[in-house]
Amino acid sequence: MKSGRVIAYYGNGRGKTSSALGYALAEAGKGDTAIIISFLKQKDNDVSEFMKRLEPEIRVFRFQKSEKIYDDLTEEERMEENGNMMNGLNYARKTLANGDCSVLVLDEILGLLDREIISMDEMKILLDRREPETDLILTGRVLHDELLPYIDEAFEISVTKS
Prior knowledge:
single chain; alpha/beta; 6-stranded parallel sheet
């Protein structure tokens, strides 16, 4: 039985999601299954259609309904999307508790902490629910020091030239 890891890709640079997807693809290539849950991203039908080609080894879920970026939403729209993202978080909890996949990518989940959509305690409870053999990948801009005890590997993605 393999021992799972918690990996974080964070920072202000581009490529956090791509790194997480690459990890999921590599593991799927070895016969594992991956679930990707995206947070704080607008609905993108083109990407969703492409990702469906990777099923059943890789399944992607976006619970947000808006086609706009979260930060561009009105307060009312944000409240609605917060509820949608909580549905995504609940699905992540269920997935972790049931061991439904070998790799679970929670794309931009660290941003939920930054925007206070979830609390640090909620994040820690989520991390504690991981089955020991499940790889859990977290992405976002900021990796809070309080999460470091839960993280096995952290990769800071930064811009050195733009």
